[in-house]
Design goal:
The protein is α+β, with helices and mostly antiparallel strands. Helix content is 20%, strand content 36%.
């Protein structure tokens, strides 16, 4: 028997997803960064895209692969990350590599 005065326990992201819901976008983004950091041993610079999918979440995360001086010559990489609805990393793949100063072109 419970009453209204007992504290409610917080759901974990996995419990939340198991009930048919997905974690919020901010939690998915945080999760992608944390898990990729653990796997690569490098702190990502930014999440450049995040979108919900039928399987969970898909994110693109930018990482400094080679630090150089000046910083504009550092080598960056875009990683495509796939998360389940609970925010757990299922897969990742390194996409393109580029220098920090390089900008996108329309003819990709």
């Amino acid at each position: 028997m419970t009453n209204d005065r007992e504290p409610k326990t917080a759901e974990t992201p996995r419990q939340h997803a198991a009930q048919g819901n997905r974690v919020a976008a901010t939690e998915a983004m945080r999760s992608a960064v944390e898990q990729l950091t653990e796997l690569l041993g490098r702190q990502p610079e930014s999440v450049s895209s995040l979108k919900p999918t039928e399987e969970g979440w898909q994110a693109r995360v930018e990482v400094v692969e080679v630090e150089r001086i000046p910083e504009t010559t550092s080598v960056m990489a875009s990683y495509d990350v796939v998360l389940d609805p609970a925010g757990q990393l299922l897969a990742y793949e390194r996409g393109r590599r580029y220098t920090r100063a390089q900008t996108d072109r329309d003819d990709r």
